[in-house]
Amino acid sequence: MTQRAVLITGGTSGIGRATAELLSQQGYSVIVTGRNPDSIAAAERDFGDRILVLRADAASVQDSERVAEEIRTRFGSLHAVFLNAGISGSMPVGTVTEEDWARYFDINAKGQFFTLQSVLPLLADGASVVFTVGVGVLRGMPGGSVVSASRGALLAMVPSLAVELAPKGIRVNAVSPGAIETPIWGKSGMPAEAVSEVLEGMAARVPLGRVGAPGDIAETVAFLVSDGSSYITGQNIVVGGGVEIA
Questions:
Q1: Which option is the CATH number for 5-182+213-241: 3.40.50.720, 1.20.120.1780, 3.40.50.300, 3.10.450.50?
Q2: Element housing 29 (H / E)
Q3: What is the DSSP string of 59-94?
Q4: CA–CA distance from 151 to each of 15, 59, 107, 141, 148 (Å)?
């Protein structure tokens, strides 16, 4: 195919979905993965033939290998991969179980690393790799130790991966969203009124005075995927309205 292909993990909702829509509009061939049947069905309905939707569990190495083989068959190579799949949540240190720890690291760290490993042979010279990390890695938050540790593992990988893959011209960067209004808030179990109050409280702590939208992150990822960022690698771009400096 003449269009450049991009894989987005966790691409059926929130930030991943917004990024898929934007890159598709910009002319890329986009492949997204997801594991929630409802969000997969909604994505397939809304995307139609514009974007390929594949069911895959981010924690499964076998699923990553299957996705890579599907991309090889349909597209031959990849211009970029946005490793965005992940889970979040707040757990006080005294409540964390061994199963919690394993689940977060399996999905947020192991899954993203082995997805990259699976698609690495498909990455063309000059390709771009982008990880989703999160501002929680840079700012302490009560109950955020496990999710921040699992996401922070990705951030720790970025410089080494950037150096290792540089001889092929492959760039490796991270994007760290601040407070973003996504469907994940609706899955928290809080009533809609409580979610609104939380988001308003977050907005009050952001210098730019608002929480972000998925499109704010999508625009940054689109830049990191584009040739306009061809001299940027090994970096973590914080997109949080200045919350990390307040």
A1: 3.40.50.720
A2: strand 29-34
A3: T-HHHHHHHHHHHHHHTS-EEEEEE---------GG
A4: 16, 14, 10, 14, 5
CA dist 65 and 143 (Å) reads 33
Domain residue ranges of the chain, discontinuous segments joined by +:
5-182+213-241
Locus of tokens 């594949």: 54
Nearest-angstrom CA–CA distance, 211 and 200? 8
Task: Give percent of the chain with pLDDT exceeding 90.
Answer: 74
Query: What is the spatial distance between Cα 32 and Cα 41, in angstroms, rounded to a whole number?
Result: 12
- Say how many residues make up the chain: 246
- Its pTM stands at 0.92
54 phi and psi angles, rounded to 5 deg: -120, 135
CA atoms within 13 A on the CB side of 94: 0
* Residue 1 predicted with pLDDT over 50: no
141-153 per-position pLDDT tens digit: 788 899 899 999 9
**Beta carbons of 230 and 128 less than 8 angstroms apart:** no
User: Which position has the token pair 């499964």?
Assistant: 60
120-142 pLDDT tens trace: 999 999 999 999 999 888 877 78
